[in-house]
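Title: Prediction job returns without error message
Component: structure pipeline
Severity: low
Priority: P3
Assignee: unassigned

Description:
Job completed but the reporter wants confirmation the result is attached to the right record. Sequence as submitted:
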Amino acid sequence: MPSRHELVSHERRVRRAAARWRLSLLKDPKPFGKVLEHGGYMLRMDGTSDIVFGNTRYKFDADLADIERYLEQLEAQEDEG
């Protein structure tokens, strides 16, 4: 399990990467149950406030690695097109 400092640093990196796509990283303010075990994060579109990732099975169901993979897919799609 990462230390608190490592987690905060990782969140900052993901927030910066998301900001390039005009997305905001949202963190569940009171994680419990499934959220605490498997996720705790979502991505929201800045202009519309639509949730674009992290609410498939339940709210805040993505972890930071899931968010990073999603952002990498966006990057790969942009490179292709």
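Comment from assignee: result matches the submitted record. The helical segments are 4-19, 33-38, 64-80.
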